[in-house]
Each structure stands twice: as structure tokens, then as C-alpha cells.
Design goal:
Layout: H1 12-39, H2 46-113
Helix pairs in contact: 1-2
Length: 114
Amino acid sequence: MSDLLRPGPDGELANAVDGYLLWHARVTEAEQRARDFVEAMDWLTTSQRAEIERCYAADSLRRARKDVERVAARCVALRAEYEHRYQGLRRRCLGLALSVCAASTAAVALLLLL
């Protein structure tokens, strides 16, 4: 079994299946839109109709792929930004917790010495 299909803690298999199904739906939609586009052109021969459908669907899928790649790149950038912010918040929270513990320990030590 390939690493892509091996289910992991982050749900890679589910993501792969979801991506496949979404892309397959996009292909089906592009093919249907191509058929609808060519339908009004009744003067075309069968081979011309098939060629225009193929080109139209290919162009639609090329645009869809660029859109998906742009969205994926934005998701990666947002994830990096959020992880950076999360790490900063985590450091501040840890620093605050350690400061409170140190202050509490110092206060208890002072009270015990008195």
C-alpha cells in the first residue's frame, strides 16, 4: 500500500479521496458545459464538435487547476501564519505561567521565613 493511501493521524486518505471526488466532479462539470456550449452550433460537423468540446473542457480544467493551486497556496500561507502566531501565544502563555509559579513560590517562601 502506498504512503498516500495509508490512513494516518491527519486523515490523508480522507483528504485524497475528497480531492479525487471534487476533481472528478469538476471534470464532469467541464465536460457538460462544453457540450452545452457546442449544442447551439448546429452547423458543426461531428469531428469539429468533438474538437471544440475537447478544447473547451481542457481550457476549463486548466483554469480550475490554476484556481485550486492558488487556493492551496493561500491555505499553506495562512497555515504558516497561524502556526507562527500560535507559537508566539504559546510562548507568552508559558512565560506567564512560569512567572506566576515563580511569584507564588517566592511569596510562599517569604511567608514561611517570616
